[in-house]
Design goal:
heterodimer, A: 10 helices, B: Rossmann fold, CBS-domain, 4-stranded antiparallel beta sheet
Chain lengths: ~230, ~375
């Protein structure tokens, strides 16, 4: 019966999209904002934790255990659990979104730092880098590709999760997906899904491009012989 | 006599706090200014550990180390390392920095201004015969040999008086290694740095060292002497075994042709008559003679070729397939002798100027004295 209702309407009603241009734009912006805040805050929390875990291997298992547990909580359940405390707010959405970035980011930062060749580190120390200079001028630059790979996964994951936050009214493009289900309205459903998909693909491409820009050494592999 | 640049006194390193054998136990060693000291020994002999204690990449657990009269253990390790050149086997170039930035690493750490750094890079490019094109490339774009040269150039950037080199030419193929060794020897002749050089390769040690310290397990010094002494009089069985067979041949590699005399050898000029040339060959019991015009080596003529002509100039002198120079080692000369049909090596100096000939007897006499 529901399917029949959907089939009654055309797949895409361009007029509706045109009439709601402002809302579409606003929701896209909200989606971007929620994603951006989540990844940035996630990074701010993950970075010191990852450094700590990198320096002291003992704390790595408990950190991944906690963030891993957060990662396994179903997103809808997490939002629901938070509502009594933080209400239907951006904060509720962000607490959830940030939680999901932590495991990905921490793992990648630690993996990136671990992959820095020990010879390079030893040579740097032997030349007189301080520990701090070693970290900022050698270890982090060399870990950048792996760290950015983590940022990519975290970003794309977050873009997907933001749509779920539509249930608490802070869902960006998820708003249209929810609307589509509520009113059995294919245009909104398609609009919400396709736009969040395109947004995710676009952000991923942007981050790949950024990675190429900031790691020029990783591109050039042709050996010149004399 | 010479000034001591690096002094290790009863130095020990234990890696595990609770007993266990020490990696280096009570080692004392003095190294003179401007001298290349090679630490050589089997793996586990503590040679690398010993070297790394000098710039405190490894902290000694006992004893004292002085560099230029200053106790390194009382110094800030970071400051200390900036004043000691450091080269490791895998080179350790920073992969995310261009060659120029790599060479500029230590100058930047110690706060040189851009102009001074550029000037120094120009000097190093010249000294190491680096291609200027490479400066803006990344290490991954260079061949192993080029990277090694950059690694050594980088270690010399602030002109430190002391250099630590841990198998610096280990990661390249033998032919490139030999070229790098030769180039470095030439550079060191000018720079006169105090160099601590670690290798497991006795031939490299013999080639590079002013003095060799042969280490045994636990950093026990079995012999500390010049390469010549070690080959001539190995202190004990361990040294004898480590140096291996062919001690005589290895000694030949230490002596230059210019250091020993040559024999006269049969010489004719283009204007010599054939009869006289034949007489000259027969006088010295040779069946050929070098053709030398105004001191310049032109080639050689055969006894039989002169039989039917009147002048040496009537036959085209044949080019020597090989001749040795004053800079060649006796080992190379020996190779030339045993591979030539004539059983002698012709010696030319300063390009093509004829000096004389070397025979097997002559070389053998050199080794026996």
């Amino acid at each position: 019966m529901i399917l029949a209702q959907i089939e009654d309407r055309p797949l895409v009603e361009w007029d509706w999209i045109n009439d709601n241009r402002d809302v579409v734009l606003a929701k896209l912006l909200e989606h971007a904002q929620l994603t951006f805040i989540a990844v940035v805050v996630g990074m701010i929390i993950s970075f010191p934790l990852a450094l700590w875990a990198y320096r002291h291997k003992r704390v790595y298992p408990p950190i991944t255990a906690v963030t891993g547990t957060l990662y396994t909580i179903p997103s809808l359940a997490l939002f629901a659990m938070l509502i009594p405390y933080t209400g239907l707010s951006v904060l509720t959405a962000e607490i959830g979104l940030v939680s999901y970035t932590l495991l990905i980011l921490i793992r990648n930062i630690v993996a990136g730092l671990d992959a820095v060749p020990s010879d390079t580190k030893e040579a740097a120390l032997g030349m007189g880098f301080t520990q701090r200079q070693l970290l900022w001028r050698v270890e982090l630059p060399l870990a950048t590709p792996v760290i950015l790979a983590g940022v990519r996964v975290a970003t794309v994951t977050t873009i997907g999760l933001v749509t779920v936050a539509a249930f608490i009214g802070k869902g960006g493009l998820g708003h249209f997906i929810l609307l589509g289900f509520d009113r059995l309205f294919p245009t909104a459903l398609l609009l919400g899904s396709l736009m969040s998909l395109l947004f995710a693909v676009g952000m991923d491409a942007l981050l790949v491009w950024t990675e190429r820009r900031v790691t020029p050494w990783a591109r050039s592999r042709t050996v010149v012989t004399t | 006599m010479s000034e001591v640049a690096i002094s290790l006194r009863n130095v020990s390193k234990k890696f595990s706090a609770n007993g266990g054998p020490a990696a280096v136990d009570d080692l004392s060693l003095d190294m003179n200014k401007g001298e290349t000291v090679v630490l050589v020994g089997p793996s586990g002999c503590g040679k690398t550990t010993t070297m790394k204690m000098i710039n405190r990449l490894i902290e000694p657990t006992g004893g004292s180390i002085e560099v230029d009269g200053t106790d390194v253990l009382a110094q800030d390790p970071v400051e200390l390392r900036r004043n000691i050149g450091y080269v490791i086997q895998s080179i350790g170039l920073l992969p995310h920095r261009t060659i120029r930035e790599n060479i500029a690493t230590v100058p930047k750490l110690v706060g040189w201004d851009g102009g001074r750094i550029d000037k120094r890079i120009d000097e190093l490019v010249e000294i190491f015969e680096l291609d200027r094109e490479f400066l803006k490339r990344y290490p991954s774009e260079l061949s192993g040999g080029q990277r090694q040269r950059v690694g050594v150039a980088r270690a010399l950037a602030v002109d430190p008086p002391v250099m630590l080199m841990d198998e610096p030419f280990g990661a390249v193929d033998p032919i490139v290694r030999e070229r790098l060794q030769d180039q470095f020897l030439k550079i060191q002749e000018e720079l006169k740095k105090t160099i601590v050089f670690v290798t497991h390769d006795i031939d490299e040690a013999i080639k590079m060292a002013d003095r060799i310290a042969i280490l045994n397990t636990g950093g026990v010094i079995e012999q500390y002497a010049t390469p010549e002494e070690i080959l001539r009089e190995p202190a004990n069985n361990f040294v004898k075994q480590f140096v291996g067979v062919e001690r005589g041949l290895k000694r030949l590699a230490l002596t230059k042709v210019a250091d020993i005399g040559t024999d006269e050898g049969p010489v004719v000029t283009s204007s010599t008559s054939a009869a006289e040339a034949i007489k000259e060959m027969e006088r010295l019991d040779f069946h050929w003679a070098s053709v030398v015009d105004d001191g310049e080596l032109k080639g050689w003529v055969e006894h039989s070729a002169l039989k039917r002509v009147t002048n040496v100039s009537d036959v085209e002198p044949k080019p020597f397939s090989a001749y040795v120079t004053g800079e060649s080692t006796l080992r190379e000369a020996l190779d030339s002798i045993v591979t030539s049909r004539t059983q002698v090596a012709v010696v030319a100096i300063e390009g093509q100027r004829y000096k004389g000939i070397l025979t097997l007897q002559r070389i053998s006499k050199e080794i026996l004295t």
